[in-house]
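Before going further, learn to read the protein records used in this course. Taken together, the tokens spell out the fold as the letters spell out the chain. A record is reproduced here so that you can trace the correspondence yourselves:

***
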Amino acid sequence: MTRIVVDAMGSDDFPVPDVVGAVAAAREYGVEIILVGDEAKIGPVLAAQNADRLPVRVVHAPEMLTMEDKGMALVLKARRPNSKNSMAVGIDLVKNGEADAFVTAGNTGAASVTAYFRLGTIPGVDRPALAPIFPTATGSCVVTDVGANPDCKPENLLQFAIMGSIYAQKARGVASPKVGLIANGEEAGKGNELVKHTYPLLAESGLNFFGNIEAKELLGGKVDVAVTDGFTGNVLLKSSEAVAKLLMDKIKEAILTGGLLAKLGGALIKPSLKGIRQMMDPSEYGAAPLLGVNGLVFIGHGRSDALAIKNAVRVAKNAVEADVIESIRSAIEKSLQGK
């Protein structure tokens, strides 16, 4: 049985969404859940879930990392062998072979730093990359990196491309993922110095390289993996989420203020709008993998609800069963041998 650690102190409204979503995942997906966090806070929520017959247990972690943990203070909490925060305790369970993957809706920076220091990286990977799923006109696309590495070298983007391609293939079932390099133009030679120097690396990598892409190609579903630095990716992610929310809010506003005919029309198209809302809702994708660390770590939104946590456990389970870590290790080793 796949064993998934869930950081019960991760979400903005911890521990309710974290515990409720994790128990729902244990019930629906047949996984063992290890809830990590303050037992006194987890206990009452867990008791209300009728989970006595489910494979759910609690590992006590009296401390937690928050948005206030930054700089050297965060590094020390992430590295200290005897750290008692929920992220450190949970990730150590993966490191020690007591669990197969770790899921958190906590501070992205804290989770990334803790995973980096406690798990290390896969040999040949310089930096881990956060790789969420973007909805597109034809399905979805893995975008990497979206925030773990604001400043990158071309070699970093090559590694991101290899890892993103393996994840799309193994965990998402894409036979030969098309890889695109985010730039300000489709033609080779466009982009800043990072993009210009990354292009030939990807072209010679053996990946199914599509070439440069703009946002319209990404959202139009032209590629399965989009590669960029963490600064550009983070701006893209937050802008996309903001635009999606703006459009849905404006459609709702137009229906409510447009008079009787608009309300009648709104009632008729409500089922279709529900499908669109689900497609653009980050909760449907659960959490993003932190690719490159030597263990499976998934990071979700701080505002995750129980559905998001349940789906995060699902994507973590899929990655475990697809043996993503070993596949990335083999692909990186092969890339290094080809140099």
Summary: The chain has a mean pLDDT of 92. The chain has three domains: 3-130+285-330, 133-232, 239-278. The two ends are 39 Å apart (CA to CA). Residues 133-232 form one domain.
